[in-house]
Amino acid sequence: MQIYDVTVPVHPRMPVYPGDPPVVLEPRAQLSKGDPANVCYCGMGTHTGTHVDAPFHFIETGRKLHEIPLNIMVGRVRVVEITARKIDVDTLSRLDLGEHIRVLFKTRNSQLWQQETFNPDYVFITPEAAAKLVADGIKLVGIDYLSVEEYGSTTFATHIELLSNGVVILEGLDLRAVDAGDYELICLPLKLMDSDGAPARVILRG
Length: 206
What we know:
Structural class: alpha/beta
Largest sheet: 7 strands, mixed, barrel
Order of helices and strands: EEEEHEEHEEHEHEEE
Strand content: 25-35%
Distance between the termini: 6 Å
Number of helices: 4
Radius of gyration: 17 Å
Number of strands: 12
């Protein structure tokens, strides 16, 4: 069985969403300096790289990260490849998601991970498409850049539509090495208590 690691490597030069904390990785103890072990300090935002959004991210009374059932983040998933510049209702109408409750969108976004600066010209999901995903029974939506939301949105309607209806959002995937098709998704975010989200290690098996 082939295993695909679709997690973005975390390092200080990686792009982060504007306004989010930068990544810090600093040695605090080093064998080369006479310390008994190598130990690094790690600092980053909860929405760094490949990460999960909990409803609490945008909804004050929403479910927090540690309250999301793992069975939503582990199971069969369909990867679909999109060539459009945005994922709208028309885009979704041309897809066959079958009985899947999890979908990952592979777009031109995956190529943006070759850049070390944030690029606001990424493929996003419109609020209307988000509502259709909810209506179609989708429980997890993944995309291959740092947000499902159109850059510059002030209403965050896509996030709110998905999160208020219990849909888990998985952002920051790197799907360059993955073909469209069906896989087993294993998405394990850090178990940060009372958090709005967390970085995750995500693999596909197929």
